[in-house]
Structures are given as structure tokens and as C-alpha cells.
């Protein structure tokens, strides 16, 4: 039996956690984590994804930014 491991991804700091972690928001910056591509709903199968492998959507630019603010 094959279990697909998917990830939740923070579009703000590009942090990924396993779906099993059940985190809904990034502990670094409070951004809502994506558990699938916002454009085509493809699951995020790699913790290093910054773009959707199915439609090429840029995860980071898909989420509205709440004010321009430097992270560092
Ligand atoms: Zn984050
Ligand atoms: Zn997609």
C-alpha cells in the first residue's frame, strides 16, 4: 500500500512541514500554510517546492501579502 506523503508549505518563508504535522499556520510569521496548489489543487509532494509541479504556479506570489515588511 502506497501512502503519498504531502507537505504544507509557507508561501512567505518557504518553509515546508509534513502534512501529518497538522500545522495550519507558520510559526515563523503566521502565514497560512498551503496544503495544495492554490491554482490547481495539486498536492505539494516535495518540501522544497516553491512552484507547483503541475501548473507552474508560484506559491509565494499566490498569497496576498499583508503589508510590505522586511523579514530580517
Ligand atoms: Zn513562514
Ligand atoms: Zn498548480
Topology:
Layout lengths: L6 E3 L6 E3 L40 H4 L10
Antiparallel strand pairs: 1-2
The protein binds zinc ion (ZN) (2 copies).
One zinc ion binds next to loops.
What descriptors fit this protein?
72 residues, little secondary structure, two-stranded antiparallel ribbon, 8% strand, binds zinc ion
Spans of at least 5 consecutive residues whose pLDDT stays below 50 are none
Count of alpha and pi helical runs: 1
Instruction: Please state the oligomeric state of the protein chains shown.
Output: single chain
Q: Structural class of the secondary structure composition?
A: little secondary structure
Helix content: under 10%
Mean pLDDT: 86
Number of strands: 2
Widest sheet, order of strands: 1-2
H/E element sequence: EEH
Sheet-strand content, in percent, reads 5-15%
**What bound compounds does this protein have?**
zinc ion
Task: Outline the biggest β-sheet.
Answer: 2 strands, antiparallel
- Structural shape: globular
Summarize the structure.
The mean pLDDT is 86.
Amino acid at each position: 500500500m502506497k501512502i503519498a506523503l504531502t507537505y504544507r508549505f509557507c508561501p512567505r518563508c518557504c518553509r515546508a512541514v509534513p502534512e501529518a504535522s497538522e500545522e495550519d499556520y507558520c510559526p515563523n510569521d503566521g502565514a497560512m500554510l498551503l496544503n495544495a496548489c492554490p491554482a490547481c489543487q495539486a498536492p505539494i509532494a516535495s518540501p522544497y517546492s516553491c512552484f507547483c509541479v503541475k501548473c507552474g504556479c508560484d506559491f509565494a506570489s499566490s498569497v496576498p501579502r499583508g503589508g510590505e515588511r522586511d523579514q530580517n
